[in-house]
Design goal:
Mean pLDDT: 91
Structural class: alpha/beta
Number of strands: 22
Number of helices: 23
CATH architecture of one domain: 3-Layer(aba) Sandwich
Oligomer: single chain
Strand order of the largest sheet: 4-1-5-6-7-8-9
CATH topology of one domain: Rossmann fold
CATH superfamily of one domain: Cobalamin-binding domain
């Protein structure tokens, strides 16, 4: 009996350049195939020919197919336009091929079937059970799609229908890693350093309006612990460098600490995985703290602990159905992590309903004042099709204006940054104008580039503690300076980031942000600011000096602080610095970071700063300090010894 050939498509780009290539294994597609084909009847009747996981040339993909019976597409915001073009070409070449779309970017209604005639079926929500049921139904002479769960289909008259979406009670699915579905991919692409998704649980109990998990209202379910351990072993054995933790609230369960212990043991024995990024639980802070501390000590954590808010505006929080932790509790957590020299980061969303420009900037200033100096990340609010915020009634209620923002992938070659995906980006609400949205983007990027990366952090912290200059006032003044008075280095990168923000506002193709002198790699806005300044470090500090002098610091103090600020920034050319000073800045700032303020002491000393993980050259600097070190505080020296110098009375 001839088997029915099928293909799975879950595409991403190849990150990096010719010296370093990275891409993700197609975990979601592998899950569906592994669960379906464990059924002996389906294994006898279907053959998975190939999983397409990178954005290959469309014509070449179609030409490589052998009589496809159906093709399943996993859709995300970055991949849906590519999937549509590929699906259309497949349908033109193979009219009888069944085209199935599923994934997070499939709307909760029948729109895709009504708009795109080349799509035959949609799966909504979690895909394993409906995918398997669909393959079983297709074996029948007269399939009855109305009897299947979580499916949209057309009837004989071409009318689209949708069945009830189900949420499974458990996670009794085989692992595509352990079933060997990715072994051939790893073998066939030796030039790619693969990343992987690690999913130990699924679901989220919260109902945040901006999130596409909220409408599912699913409880958290766990994969068996022995399966998780086995997957980590597979990843270590196959030299998987980077893991993305798919759990919404890792640290929610006591067993999560066991998972981390196992992962660290594998790292120590094999060297893999090198890094992992995790979404931590909002509560259970003792377990989360122990987990983060262990990952920090093993140098496996990419960013450290997540202490997120999305907004600090009470009106916004009410609008989006979110409750933040008590802010005094947040400050105590910051103290706990800072005392152990463990990096944390907080996330905000720009464009949430009820936010104003002033409240947004004040929220950032409040986080900085609480000690969140090394990591504030922001996301532009987007309307996800399966979120509550993405529904028409919510949009109308809050006066939301959005644009079709193109996604241009970062951390990849500028010529291979596929401008393919589309976000519905919020650019205005009842309380935030488009002009304020543009300025808020600029404000945040400058704060990230100069505070989170450290280029002006010591000045901002000193002025806040000694002159009472609010952080938001400092960085707003910096934005004004850049707009009107800055020199050629500063104006060079400032004009580029502003142009890109305006391009996104007007739905234009965004320019690639590339530091050409360094590498043809496309960077995020804040990364581009930091790299541009480090490459022109002397010129940058010469140009920024007039702005810093406006705050009227005494000359000797200014010269010392200016020297300390500049020399504490890491570069790709120096593994250590010896910084002679008249003031004990290191002790001063260290005390502030743990909320134990002491006045700055005038005491001669030499700061011996060292980077024990230093690898010379821009390639290593970009990868470990900027890409992997983003939000991790890697851009400033933190291995420091102080030599106090006796002076004559």
């Amino acid at each position: 009996m001839k088997k029915r050939n099928f293909y799975m498509v879950q595409v991403d780009i190849v990150y990096g350049d010719e010296t370093f290539k990275s891409s993700y294994l197609p975990y979601a597609a592998g899950l569906l195939a592994a669960y379906a084909l464990e059924d002996p009847t389906l294994a006898e009747n279907y053959e998975l020919k190939r999983m397409i996981f990178i954005m290959e040339d469309l014509e070449e993909v179609v030409a490589s197919m052998e009589d496809p019976y159906f093709v399943g597409f996993s859709n995300y915001v970055w991949s849906t336009p590519y999937n549509k073009r590929l699906a259309k070409k497949i349908k033109e070449r193979y009219p009888d091929c069944i085209i199935l779309f599923g994934g997070h970017n499939v709307p909760p209604n029948n729109d895709f079937l009504e708009e795109f005639p080349y799509i035959d079926l949609l799966i909504h929500g979690e895909g394993e059970i409906p995918f398997k049921a669909l393959l079983q139904e297709l074996l029948k002479e007269n399939p009855d799609f109305a009897a299947l769960p979580s499916l949209s289909y057309r009837d004989a008259a071409g009318i689209a229908h949708k069945t009830e979406t189900i949420i499974p009670e458990g996670l009794d699915y085989p692992s595509p890693y352990l079933m060997g579905y990715f072994d051939q991919i790893v073998e066939d692409y030796p030039e790619i350093r693969f990343s992987a998704i690690l999913e130990t649980s699924r679901g989220c109990p919260y109902q945040c309006a901006y999130c596409d998990w909220a409408l599912l209202k699913s409880k958290i379910r766990q994969f068996p612990l022995e399966r998780v351990f086995a997957e980590i072993t597979w990843m270590a054995d196959h030299k998987i460098e980077y893991l993305w933790g798919a759990d919404s609230n890792f640290g929610f369960f006591d067993r999560d600490e066991q998972i981390v212990d196992y992962m660290i043991d594998k790292k120590e024995r094999t060297g893999y995985p090198e890094k992992i990024r995790i979404n931590y639980a909002k509560h259970n802070e003792d377990i989360v703290f122990r987990i983060v501390k262990k990952l920090h000590q093993s140098e496996i954590s990419k960013f450290g602990a997540t202490l997120s808010f999305q907004s600090l505006n009470p009106t916004v929080l009410e609008n989006i159905g979110r409750k933040n932790m008590d802010f005094e509790h947040f400050k105590s957590l910051m103290l706990r992590y800072n005392s152990e020299n463990i990096r944390t980061y907080s996330e905000l969303i720009l464009g949430l309903p009820g936010e104003t420009y002033e409240s947004y900037c004040q929220g950032i200033g409040t986080l900085l004042a609480a000690g969140q100096h090394s990591g504030i990340d922001y996301y532009r609010c987007v309307l996800l099709p399966n979120s509550r915020m993405g529904q028409p009634e919510f949009i109308e209620k809050h006066g939301i204006k959005h644009v079709e923002g193109r996604i241009l992938q970062v951390h990849c070659h500028k010529e291979k940054a596929w401008p393919d995906g589309v976000f519905r980006t919020v650019v205005a609400t009842n309380t935030l104008s488009e002009e304020e949205w543009v300025r808020a983007n600029l404000f945040t990027v400058l704060m990230q580039g100069f505070h989170s990366y450290g280029l002006l952090r010591f000045f901002a912290v000193y002025l806040y503690n000694e002159r009472g200059v609010p952080y938001e006032d400092f960085y707003n003044a910096l934005a004004d300076y850049y707009e009107a008075e800055a020199g050629p280095v500063i104006q060079g990168f400032y004009r580029k980031i502003k142009k890109q923000i305006l391009q996104s506002l007007h739905e234009e193709q965004e320019d690639s942000l590339v530091v050409e002198e360094v590498a043809p790699i496309r960077w995020m806005l804040d990364e581009f600011v930091f790299l541009s300044c480090v490459y022109h470090l002397d010129e940058f500090y010469t140009e920024i000096e007039p702005f810093l002098r406006r705050f009227g610091l005494e000359e000797t103090l200014f010269e010392n602080l200016f020297r300390y600020q500049k020399e504490m920034v890491k570069t790709p050319t120096a593994s250590k610095k010896d910084i002679p000073l008249d003031y004990d800045f290191y002790a001063y700032f260290s005390k502030i970071y743990v909320h134990e303020y002491q006045p700055l002491e005038k005491r001669a000393n030499i700061v011996h700063a060292h980077d024990p993980g230093f690898v010379p050259g821009w390639a290593a600097f970009m990868r470990f300090i900027v890409w992997f070190g983003r939000m991790g505080g890697k851009s400033l020296f933190d291995d420091v010894q102080i030599e106090y110098v006796e002076t004559e009375a």
